[in-house]
Amino acid sequence: PLTEPLRLAVVSRLAPNKRVDHAIEVLSILRQRGIDARLTIIGSGGEETRLRQLVSDRNLEPFCELTGYLPEEKKNELLACSHWLLHTSVREGWGLNVLEANAMGTPAAVYPVAGLIDSTRDDETGVVASRESPEALANRLGAFLTRPEAYRPLRHNAWELAKSLHWDRVLPKACDWLEKQADPSRTSDMASRVTSSG
User: Fold this and answer.
1) Were both Cys, which of 12, 71, 162, 189 would link to 102 (CB 3.0–4.6 Å)?
2) Quick one: which H or E segment has residue 179?
3) Is 36 helix (H, G, I), strand (E, B) or coil?
């Protein structure tokens, strides 16, 4: 159930384009508003020292943990216990960690950027902030605390979406498509069309 403490998670490489510092700012804003929120950041990278300093500067050490790399089982455990996955990247090709969180029944709260708006269905499997700012994301999360009954359907829908994208369902369709593309008759038909038009 959506009750405090609000448990937030980030799963990311700690790189500038991932903007993990924005997730830390979301935590800071929520706490300033009197919301008991906690953040766990899973991942490693060149930004780790700077992010640890930001946590210290905001006096968030008791509420924010940077775990570094975690084995898959431990990461999944942590995601399953989180209320939200935060994703504040500049852009993503798809946002695979959104679906990994969804598979654990955890919806994502994301920025409105390429990839993340594809992997997160706003108000259905997660939430998309109105703009790319920690305040906008904090607003979306805080609003759910005033109507916690709206959270449970998000969890269920997120989990169902992840199930629908399991390899058992996706791979046969992908293989059929690839086989059609590799069909020699299709290739020779295309070549004859190019020759006749050229």
Assistant:
1) 162
2) helix 167-182
3) coil
pTM of the full structure: 0.84
pLDDT value at residue 18: 97
Report the C-alpha dihedral over residues 140, 2, 69, 164, rounded to 10 degrees: -80
3 state DSSP class of 43 = strand
What's the pLDDT at 192? 59
* Cis peptide bond upstream of 153, omega within 30: no
What is the number of other CB atoms lying within 10 angstroms of the CB of residue 58? Answer: 16
Reported as a pLDDT band with limits 50, 70 and 90, residue 163 is confident
Pick from 125, 194, 123, 188: nearest CA to 156: 125
Q: How far apart are CA 99 and CA 57, in angstroms?
A: 32
Tokens matching residue 12: 């990311």
CA distance 63 to 5: 10
- Quick one: what percent of the chain has pLDDT higher than 70? 92
Q: For residues 63 and 31, is the Cβ–Cβ distance under 8 A?
A: yes
List, for residues 125-136, the tens digit of each pLDDT value. Answer: 999 999 999 999
